[in-house]
Amino acid sequence: MTLRFPPLLLGPTTKGFWSPTPVTRSEFVAAGHTLTDGSLTWPVLTLDADAVVHNIGQLASFTADRGLAFAPHGKTTMSPELFSAQLDAGAWGITVATGNQLLSAHSFGVHRVLVANEVLDPTVLRWIAATLAAEPSADILFHVDSVAAVDVAAAALAGEGRLRVLLEVGHEAGRSGVRSGDQALAVAQHVARTPGVDLVGVSAYEGALVDADAARAFLAEVRAVAEMLVGAGLLQDHVILSAGGSAYFDVVADVLGGADVGGVPSTTILRSGAYLTHDHGTYAGSTPFTRIAGHLYPALRVWAQVVSTPEDGLAIVGAGKRDVPYDSGLPVVLRRHRAGQAPVAVVGWDVTRTNDQHAYLECGDPLGTALAVGDLLELGISHPCTAFDKWRAIPVIDAEQRVVDVVTTWF
Amino acid sequence: MTLRFPPLLLGPTTKGFWSPTPVTRSEFVAAGHTLTDGSLTWPVLTLDADAVVHNIGQLASFTADRGLAFAPHGKTTMSPELFSAQLDAGAWGITVATGNQLLSAHSFGVHRVLVANEVLDPTVLRWIAATLAAEPSADILFHVDSVAAVDVAAAALAGEGRLRVLLEVGHEAGRSGVRSGDQALAVAQHVARTPGVDLVGVSAYEGALVDADAARAFLAEVRAVAEMLVGAGLLQDHVILSAGGSAYFDVVADVLGGADVGGVPSTTILRSGAYLTHDHGTYAGSTPFTRIAGHLYPALRVWAQVVSTPEDGLAIVGAGKRDVPYDSGLPVVLRRHRAGQAPVAVVGWDVTRTNDQHAYLECGDPLGTALAVGDLLELGISHPCTAFDKWRAIPVIDAEQRVVDVVTTWF
């Protein structure tokens, strides 16, 4: 797929870019800027070019080796440039979470989209049916987990067009998805008697489970549900199985991979999204590459200045809730940059809380590296999804801190 | 001031707007849409037209009655349309928190900006000096709280132009700002001997203090610092005092208001921002209008559908960390809308947690109002700042849910 990138001028309203006069992305990149030449300002989120290329290659190899189709979760980045890079590396399509994300991805030119969520808005349902009817290359899948949701879909269609749905299987204390085989059967039977709605597979989300063993047990139930539905004649000809956060995709491959379900040919679509940039926090500890061969590099860093050192052991940094994730771990301080000095690792200082535009760094060790007003800090983040959604344009930098590209986000 | 609004097309990438074909804001408004006519989709954040007009009027009256200048904090909304409405109601200028917010506000045409933060980036400091020199109507103020920050400013100037700074006074366990009168004197004396940097007043932030008594005691110290600096000859001719979140602006008026500081004429600039939309959470409980005459209405609501009811007493709603604030209280469920039925209040259901794109509603009362898949819920939010920054365009609706305007945000 060749994607279209919406035009974005980098101008005075583009956070992180210090550009009183608007310029295009390509003009900005062609100017040959660096991180510290005054074309960017603090705070800014950067993407490490080498790390992203490496990470895309890791999952492309993993999915190819394990025979999986890949629809990386686009909600992570909502970036057409990053969707394009993943599709160029062989991804089947893009996963999204909402109607608006589906519309965005389609406007970028993505014609295979898995909506890993229930869709209840009649406007969106009608658009899906119309798009599937009008565009032979389009494939749009979404989840159903209730009789009511199937009825909403059928009512939206009003006899016009067809929809392709995946039955979502959930787990106790989890999010959406049927909680038992009986419920799965009831929903699938209801789909079978609903004109215009076609059941094409089974989907699940294992990423919030506590460990790989729990994910393995749950995904075995998901496969069993799919086999039961095949046995009941409710899934025929071809079965789609889908799952996958960025914590247990090895287990997804083990349990849901393979060429058939109960004798019916199958395709398994992996949906991992956060792998793309990895992180210095939650995913650093939970990636499957702690269990299998391979490696991901953290690709996102926030650069922010120390704006105040008002008390001993306290430094106030100019990056806050609008700039860094705080929902799944706070940023970690990597290095200090000071004019005329080599960068040094910052030891003993932790981000302890954030305000809208500030982070509080506290030093538990009075012998820790000293921070001074005006120092530029390099912060690692935890949870890529809530980093990307705070920035509309992100400079991509190489190992020499040259700006080699700019990616955009559309949240 | 007549502001400029950056053009924004409402198109497929505009969250909340269901617009496969891009249209301008004025085209969208002229089309006479309503909340539920299919031109919007879920989740969507809406702004209540009447409530915003009322709230702007309340603070315009309050500041006029108390003789305060008003520079509402623009970080809350970063919306030129809402900046304009506040300036039209008599605000002196706009407060911002960062260099990029300053550049944005200036690009909108705001020529009086208070940066309620230290500014350490030489690029930004040079731009401020150049703008003050080039634009006679411009006034740009920012905070200093250290000798180092004054030196960074002077080094950035390199002898060219002048900067106008406010000495920031902080409090223990607070954010930035000097912690003592001795520190204040040292910084002010350093400013006095630094060419190109002019001390024009004293600033503080009282909004994170525990109660109004604590705010009153702290602000009395702030006034005392200003009087001490006047006495030392370090503030002359005219003194600016500034403070003000949205929790204690009555106390700011009481303690920092008035026409002089130590016999020198003074202006007090209030910076409250969150008052504009108020909320159903943290500010509902902490607004000064619990102590003084007046009232604010909550103006922000998120509309989202129930996408799944997978277990008894659990409903999954299609709005998550990308859509609703979760840093200072979770959303509250106001009303349920179901086709063909009158809206009903939802009792007994609480949002207990959020994922990226979902909220978990749990019912502690088995007799609580039933929620069903497809129901549209109206959610109130807590903390306006982290609501605005999740949306690029926000429909403004009237009491009949007609879309009467669209405001844009530039984070």
From TrEMBL, chains A, B:
Keywords: Lyase. It comes from the Bacteria. One of its GO terms (molecular function) is lyase activity. InterPro entries: Ala_racemase_N (IPR001608), D-amino_acid_metab_enzyme (IPR051466), D-ser_dehydrat-like_dom (IPR026956), D-ser_dehydrat-like_sf (IPR042208), PLP-binding_barrel (IPR029066). The keyword Lipoprotein does not apply. SUPFAM superfamilies: PLP-binding barrel. This is Amino acid deaminase. Pfam families: Ala_racemase_N (PF01168), D-ser_dehydrat (PF14031). Residues 299-398 form the D-serine dehydratase-like domain. Belongs to the DSD1 family.
